[in-house]
Amino acid sequence: MSAAVEQQRADAAPAPSPAPGPLPPARTGRVTALFTVLAVTLGVLAVVSAGSGQLHVPASEVLGALARGVGLDLGPEPAHPHGYTALWTVRFPRVVMAVLVGAALAAAGAVMQGVFGNPLAEPGVVGVSSGAAVAAAATIALGLTAFGPWTTAAAAFVGGLVATFVVYAMARAGGRTEVVTLVLTGVAVNAVCGAGLALFTFLGDTQAREEIVFWQLGSLNGTRWVYVAIVAPLVVLGLVGAIVLARRLDLLALGERPARHLGVDVERLRVVAVVLVAMLTAAAVAFCGIISFVGLVVPHLVRMAVGPGHRVLVPASALGGAVLLLAADLVARTVVPYAELPIGMLTALVGGPFFLWLVYRTRRQAGGWA
Amino acid sequence: MNPLLTVRGAGVRIGDATLLDGVDVAVRTGEVLVVVGPNGAGKSTLLSVLAGDRAPDAGTVTWQGEPLAAVRPGELARRRAVLLQENRVAFPFRVVDVVRMGRAPWEGSSSADRDDAVVAAALAAADVTHLAARRFPTLSGGEKARVSLARVLAQEARLLLLDEPTAALDVKHQTRVLAQARRHADAGGAAVVVLHDLPLAAAWADRVVVLHRGAVVADGAPADVLTSALLTDVYDHTVDVLTHPVTGALLVLPRHGSHERQEVAS
User: Where is the ABC transporter domain (chain B) (predicted)?
Assistant: First the structure.
């Protein structure tokens, strides 16, 4: 190296980097507040929901029945003669199911958005839910029972998995998903699955038809402990998996190549994430039908509150989804006396306009369609 | 000195197109290696081969004798960091969180204890400390490029691979980026920098590789490689190479003369 070049560099080189400043603080306060508020809301809603309905049970008696059920002699017993039985055979499984399904749908949405790098990805919108529903409807219409009570759940899982892989393969180009492509792929997948559902509705007998129609509307009506026992392990496994993937999903936000440059095995991450999304969606869909938009609305609100980091987003979305679905179910079965609204209708009623607003906002931002 | 990373006879083809053909490049410790060449010469393809993103169809890539393809992604991330031309972040992460992502390869290791210090130093080195609390999508193009550089620096990899890191930057920050690459090499690392800016290449490179139509047409010290004859031929445009009257440094000046103006006029 010549002396002249050395000299030129010495002239051109700026002063050494300024001393590192303090880093902006992590938002632990906001995160703690969010988790606290969500957990308290969930607890209160669960007690209120269990006590509400045609047979009203005060909160203290709900807690008393809960304690007695697990072998503790605490609090007042339900005053109504059938109170205890009603709570334990009808209300409690339903509350637990709402919590599980809400958590599963919201977490599936958060993971799906992470892996697609797109805030509009959601199992219902892109057709994963209807993929799971059509496979489950097939087992109902054709009377398949190969795996006993697990049959419907297993079929929903396979259907959801196929739909997710189809959407993933079709909607991605160059490691990114354009919003337009994603939504249009969803339209196509939903159309095909709609046709499938129609076919099985046509093929099935009267009872099967009724069951399939109830699926498309989505409802937690008639939840039994045996269903909860099937859904719970899937949801727990899916949530644990999603939380384990969280850090890698953050890196994926940089794009596939930069994620790989940071040591992420992108191919494996994708496959695992897609399987998790299908598993969580199938768990939600298997007994409760298509409940859309939970996975869209909840992660978005959580991101606005505490930022997009998946290590907080995934568990907070799960908690928020549980709260949302519990509240929606409470409204669905109490707003009209002696009648029950389909919960899927309610979530779509709120979620549809929210989706529109999100599309509008995304489009307004620079480069928003990417 | 033993090279850190060696590419021998690398060929990359996509369909009928030959992107690289028989390329030999050695990246040595302590060296800033600048890759120049016209559009479509294969610079970014060469960088992706060096990064291990793309295995060449022919030839070998080895890291101190070990085939690069055999290095696991996590280990590779501790050895080399890559800055791409385009840097986007899918969700509104804060700048500090984006830079912190650069620490991912060290998660669970003893180096993770230094995360905060390394992130703070990387933010300062890229001159983005004042942006640390901003959200990435709200930044300008040049600011995004600098934040991405900070993320790459926070990775503390031995080899830096920078693809046109100065393209979106003002003069001050262009100089800073290359000074950073220089410092990294002097500290026992190595840097490969793809540049379009020939004067910058002349000023900062220890060694220059000139790519043309997927092949290496020159490889050596800037003064030996960056000659008027070679550059004029490769770029199909007259390029003058002069000596600075005061510093004696190499001045590479693409001619914006009467010839081009006449072409525009005619």
Answer: 5-238
